[in-house]
Amino acid sequence: MAEHLSQSELDYPFKLLEYFNGFRVSKMIFSACELGVFDLLLKSQDALSAQHVAQELGTSVDGMERLLDALVGIEILEVERADGTALYSSTDVANLYLAKGSAKSLHDMIIYRSQTVYPLWNNLADAIREGRNQYEKTFGLPSAHFFQAIYRSEEEMLKFMGIVSCHWVLDGHDVVTAFDLSRFQKVVDLGGCTGALANEMARAYPASSVTVFDLPEVVEAAQKHFKQEDSGVTFQSGKPEY
Ligand SMILES: C[S@@+](CC[C@H](N)C(=O)[O-])C[C@H]1O[C@@H](n2cnc3c(N)ncnc32)[C@H](O)[C@@H]1O
C-alpha cells in the first residue's frame, strides 16, 4: 500500500520543506535565464569566475557568486577551483534546455513562467476566493476575455506562442504516437497556435493532411515567426465566438 506523505514526514518534514522551498529553486533558474547566465556559459569555451560573469552581465559580483553557487547546489552548474578561484561552467542539461538557441531550448517557457505565470500565481489565494483569473489584479488588465489579456500586445502574443511551442518540443512526438492515428486522413488542430503539435502530427503520419485553425493574428504570427518549411501543415484562420 502506498505510504501517505503525512506518515513518512512525521519524524522530519523533508518533503514539506522541499515543497515550501520550491519557489526558490524556480526563481533561481528563472533569474539565471533572465540575466543570460546560461547563454554566456554556453558561449564561453572556458569555465568562468563569478567576477567575469558579473562583469559580462552587468550584475553585482556578490549577487552573481551567490546565484552561481546556488545553481551548483542544485546540479545545474558545475564548479572547479583554480588557484583558489571558483570557476563555473554549465552542465550538458543546462546547455541543452536552459540556454537560448538549442533545438530543445526551454528558454521561452522559462521567461514566460517567470514574468507572467509566477506573478499570477502570487495571487492564487485570491483566484480561489473569487473563482476567477487574476490578470486584472496582477497586470491591470480586464480579465473577462482570457485571450485578450494574454494577447495584450504583439510581444506578449509571441511570448505565449513561444511557450506553447516549447511544450511540444518535449512531448509532441509521444503525444501524437500514444495512439495510432494513421486512419485519420484529415486532422484539424483547433486552436493549434504555432502549429508545433500539428508539425509533430504531420511528421508521424505523413499520409494525413494536417490543418491548424486559430485566430487571424495568431495564424499570421505563426507563419511569420514559427513556420517549419516542408512540414506540409496548412493554416486556416477565423474567430468563432463561444
Ligand atoms: C492554450 S492554447 C493551446 C494551443 C495548442 N492547442 C497547444 O496545445 O499547444 C489555446 C489556443 O486557442 C486559440 N484560441 C483562443 N480563442 C480562440 C478562438 N475564439 N478561435 C480560434 N482559436 C482561439 C489561441 O490563440 C491559442 O492558440
From TrEMBL:
Where does the record place a coiled coil? none
Q: Which UniProt keywords apply?
A: Melatonin biosynthesis, Methyltransferase, S-adenosyl-L-methionine, Transferase
Keyword hit for Amino-acid biosynthesis: no
Question: Which GO BP annotation is one of this protein's?
Answer: melatonin biosynthetic process
Which residue numbers delimit the O-methyltransferase C-terminal domain? Answer: 121-238
- Give the InterPro entries listed for this entry: COMT-like, COMT_C, COMT_dimerisation, SAM-dependent_MTases_sf, WH-like_DNA-bd_sf, WH_DNA-bd_sf
Q: Please name the Pfam families in this protein's record.
A: Dimerisation, Methyltransf_2
**Top EC category:** transferase
Q: Name one GO molecular function term.
A: acetylserotonin O-methyltransferase activity
Q: In which pathway does it act?
A: Aromatic compound metabolism; melatonin biosynthesis; melatonin from serotonin: step 1/2
What PANTHER family does its record include?
O-METHYLTRANSFERASE CICE, PUTATIVE (AFU_ORTHOLOGUE AFUA_4G14580)-RELATED
Q: What does this protein do?
A: Catalyzes the transfer of a methyl group onto N-acetylserotonin, producing melatonin (N-acetyl-5-methoxytryptamine).
Name this polypeptide is given: Acetylserotonin O-methyltransferase
Q: What organism does the UniProt record list as the source? A: Xiphophorus couchianus (Monterrey platyfish)
